[in-house]
Design brief:
Length: about 100
């Protein structure tokens, strides 16, 4: 399988609902082409869910949950890379099958 690097600048949108639509297209293409998805700086997408103080917090929490549902439904391999593991949501960390820690 080929490796497909997800370009966060092309996926993440400030407009409500657009990030999810863009990610749905990524996962659809990946499913149709038998590729491995690679998310660099994964903490930008898979950040910890927070207490809900306003609509933005609520939406950010929904976005992480939506993304996790897509990953769980995806039949391929997803690779997450980050320098800030402590910033990744605990639900994401619990669902990871393998982790590699480096001292780089």
């Amino acid at each position: 399988a080929d490796l497909f690097r997800v370009d966060l600048s092309q996926v993440v949108s400030k407009y409500i609902g657009e990030t999810e639509k863009n990610l749905a297209r990524v996962f659809e293409r990946a499913s149709n082409n038998d590729v491995i998805l690679f998310f660099d700086e994964a903490d930008a997408l898979f950040g910890k869910r927070t207490g809900v103080k306003d609509a933005h917090d609520r939406y950010a929490n929904i976005e992480v949950s939506h993304l996790m549902n897509q990953i769980e439904a995806f039949d391929g391999i997803v690779v997450l890379a980050t320098n800030n593991r402590e910033n990744i949501d605990s639900r994401v960390l619990r669902s990871i099958d393998f982790t590699i820690d480096t001292d780089a």
